[in-house]
Design goal:
By secondary structure, the protein is α+β, with helices and mostly antiparallel strands. The protein contains 23 helices and 29 strands. β24 and β25 form a beta hairpin. The structure holds 4'-deoxy-4'-aminopyridoxal-5'-phosphate.
Length: 779
């Protein structure tokens, strides 16, 4: 029974007065309706100026449950003298639970409880740490006492607020309007499934109050806890849930929530020692409780729009969800363990050194790690990365987990499909066809034939083979400084890798055209696109002079690794025209720029107003799951059917397809393009303010949330400043923000965060960049 579905009683104050007089023998002086989720609660004052709480419960609330609550109250009240509990006042005929009927003849249970004087914890702006330690002590005492308490009605299998049933509330998630809050809540439901549910059976169980939040805890002016009220959610469940609910409440409306949880845990542990396992679960239980509250509040907004009580904490819980996901779970566990004087679980710097040495045993030195001191990662949480050392990083650079790390929709889709079917594309299975339908629906005609592969390099490699099969030619034209992948064929078309001093240079069949860099290049202004595009004419002539023809032109529609260079207007239109006139095909490499990164369009080539013959995609296509694709025209695909069979063992497997489908779902359901466009505008505005402030920022460029900040040592000569760029990146890492450098000279700060990043994250990023630049420039 989900009590939320019950009919809430509606009794008038007069009826209540009359009833209390006749049934309890008390002369009522005043009646005040206090509101509640499901019941009706009144504050009663009698002629002796004694105060009571009169509760009316829907009759579907079983009588035994109310009896269990009464007995639990009596038990803790008889043993814990330092705190008051709402003892039950019997009726004239000695009954603790009475019956009352409304005007329509419907019956309800009623109870009269002693009122406890004191200030609600909710009335304290920011309760101090010692209150939480006190509360922890009280809850520890209660749990110790109730360990030996038992009542058949405490075994309530389906109460929505019992944390073991957290997932019951998950069905209300779609009612949460704000995609950010919905996503974080879902993330915590997912962690509940993976971290808590499997070990629920192992946890200590007892009857617990499980509702020690700010409206159930009374305090006095000396910061002492004086009362615990509202035993309506008392149930037999995992004992640690009691403390976890209090902890969830303790993190609301503050930025030092973890410290308050530590204070609670310290107090509790002193009375009722926690196990290491219980402590390790608290982070996830707090997250789950935040998720349950948000989902239930969304449900009540629809089912009980006038119930203000059910929305009391909505804003605070939303803010707390954002705060809690930025807390590193390992740090949380360690902090709580230390509050219980248990040894730390965080690795030391020596442990990390050993990991680095170990890595060198098995991996080539060419596989270098980012940053001076590598990151030893443990978890991803949407826009955050949590390392094993207890730090949290705001990830502003990983464009693969484009919808955020461990996005629950994608993680669940993958989890579900691996338990169902994973095979290869030589069979028919629906998700592959469905994915191809959905993916090609995002593209203009005639791009309708899909090849599913496993990496951006494989996609580009295959694109070149398709072009070769279609044109019969081998020569490829690329944009200078471009990067297209790691296979032999892709390395050959990546000037960024091989066409620089000390490197082999491009092979004879690969030709570069000048990068259309309106910042450093010779052409600027309105006709720059046309002028840069003219370079391809010379290259095409050279190829023809050699008695060869062009097979393909391949380019990103914004040069990514080459330095975040935005193509000038009309550039691709012109180049594509020349290439096609010469019989070549045009390949758009969307590996970095696709799937909404630029905000205005799903595909970056759309921003150049062209339709490629072949589109390659990868990186964010499945949010980090290894997958990539080539989409082309039926004509080109047919030419590839030339007797040389192409098969890709993993490409298009059902697990990858469902991951890809989930990515496309999120693109719509989380309003990604609109978010990117809004945040991009803000980011550019703020970065350009920094540009005005610091001479070392020579340029701020990019599209959507793919942004480069070019640093120079000399504003007039535009001398690249790779050392400064590296320092900036390292210092920001020290401040918990991940960025990286990019470009031919590594002097460009690249900003390409998950697209679900928030407005506050953009502010934090730019404020921190400002702070770092100020300190480095003044050095
Ligand atoms: N094309 C572009 C534009 C890329 O940026 C990359 C990777 N950085 C690739 C292709 C190659 O993709 P992958 O690493 O998945 O092989």
């Amino acid at each position: 029974m989900l009590s939320a579905e019950n009919l809430q009683p509606v009794f008038s104050s007069d009826t209540i007065s009359a009833c209390i007089q006749s049934v309890y023998g008390k002369q009522v002086v005043s009646v005040q309706n206090l509101g509640s989720y499901f019941d009706q609660n009144f504050l009663i004052v009698d002629q002796l100026n004694e105060k009571f709480i009169f509760k009316i419960h829907d009759i579907t609330e079983r009588r035994e449950v109310l009896d269990m609550q009464n007995q639990a109250i009596a038990r803790v009240a008889s043993r814990i003298v330092s705190v008051d509990f709402p003892l039950v006042q019997a009726t004239i005929d000695g009954s603790e639970i009475g019956e009352i009927q409304d005007s329509s003849g419907r019956n309800y249970w009623m109870r009269l409880l002693h009122y406890i004087d004191g200030e609600l914890l909710a009335d304290r702006a920011t309760p101090c740490r010692s209150i939480y330690t006190e509360l922890g002590i009280t809850l520890g005492k209660m749990d110790l006492e109730l360990q030996s308490f038992n009542h058949i009605a405490a075994y309530r299998p389906d109460t929505a607020w019992d944390l073991k049933n957290a997932l019951l509330a998950k069905k209300h998630l779609p009612l949460i309007g704000n995609p950010e809050i919905r996503r974080i809540a879902d993330y915590y439901f997912m962690l509940f499934e993976s971290e808590v549910q499997p070990i629920l059976g192992d946890l200590r169980k007892s009857v617990v109050h499980q509702d020690a939040h700010r409206y159930s805890v009374l305090v006095n002016s000396n910061d002492r806890v004086t009362g615990i009220i509202d035993f309506g959610d008392t149930v037999h469940t995992a004992t640690i849930f009691n403390l976890s609910v209090a902890a969830y409440d303790a993190i609301l409306d503050r930025t030092d929530g973890l410290d308050m949880v530590a204070a609670l845990v310290k107090g509790y542990h002193s009375e009722y020692p926690l196990t290491g396992q219980e402590i390790s679960l608290m982070y996830f239980l707090i997250g789950a409780r935040l998720a349950v509250y948000t989902a239930m509040a969304a449900h009540f907004r629809v089912t009980q729009p006038d119930n203000v009580h059910a929305q009391l904490k909505s804003k605070s819980v939303s803010a707390a969800l954002k705060y809690w996901i930025s807390v590193n779970p390992a740090r949380a566990e360690d902090t709580l363990r230390r509050a219980c004087t248990m040894p730390s679980i965080l690795p030391t710097e020596t442990d990390l050194n050993n990991k680095i040495t170990k890595r060198e045993e098995h991996f080539p030195t060419s596989l270098y790690t980012h940053y001076e001191r590598p990151l030893y990662l443990e978890r991803g949480a949407l826009q955050y990365l949590h390392d094993a050392m207890g730090h949290t990083y705001l990830d502003c650079v990983n464009n693969v987990c484009q919808w955020g790390h461990c996005h629950p929709t994608i993680a669940r889709a993958i989890q579900h499909q691996v338990t169902k079917l994973n095979t290869n594309s030589r069979y028919i299975y629906d998700v592959m066809a469905e994915y191809a339908d959905r993916l090609t629906a995002t593209m203009p005609d005639p791009l309708s034939v899909c090849f599913f592969v496993n990496s951006g390099s494989e996609a580009n490699d295959l694109a070149l083979r398709l072009a070769h099969a279609y044109t019969g030619q081998r020569d490829v034209i690329v944009v200078d400084k471009a990067y297209h992948g790691n296979s032999d064929r892709c390395t050959e078309i990546s000037p960024h890798r091989i066409d620089r001093p000390g490197k082999p240079g491009l092979p004879a069949h690969v030709h570069k055209i000048m990068v259309p860099d309106a910042f450093r290049g010779p052409y600027k202004g309105a006709d720059a696109g046309k002028k840069y595009a003219a370079d391809v004419v010379n290259v095409l002539e050279n190829i023809t002079n050699e008695k060869r023809g062009v097979s393909a032109f391949i380019a990103e529609s914004l040069v990514g690794t080459g330095g975040q260079i935005v193509l000038p207007g009309g550039y691709l239109e012109q180049v594509y025209k020349h290439i096609r006139n010469s019989g070549g095909v045009c390949v758009a490499d969307e590996v970095q720029m696709g799937f909404g990164r630029i905000g205005t369009h799903i595909w970056c080539f759309e921003s150049q107003n062209v339709i490629p013959d072949i589109v390659t995609m990868g990186k964010p296509i499945a949010n980090g799951h290894p997958m990539a694709a080539v989409v082309t025209t039926p004509e080109i695909a047919a030419a590839f059917n030339n007797g040389v069979s192409y098969f890709n063992t993993f490409g298009g497997n059902p697990v990858s397809c469902v991951a890809g489908l989930a990515v496309l779902d999120i693109l719509d359901s989380e309003n990604i393009l609109a978010n990117v466009s809004a945040l991009s505008e803000k980011l550019f505005l703020r970065l350009r303010e920094l540009q005005d402030k610091y001479d070392c920022i020579a340029d701020v460029r990019g599209l959507g949330l793919y942004v480069g900040v070019e640093l120079v040592t000399d504003a007039a000569l535009l001398t690249p400043a790779p050392r400064l760029a590296k320092q900036v990146v390292e210092q920001l890492k020290g401040m918990g923000i991940l960025l990286n450098t990019n470009g031919y000279d590594n002097n460009i700060i690249k900003i390409k965060p998950p697209l679900i990043i928030g407005c506050q994250d953009i502010d934090r990023l730019v404020d921190s960049l400002d702070e770092v630049l100020a300190s480095l420039i003044l050095e």
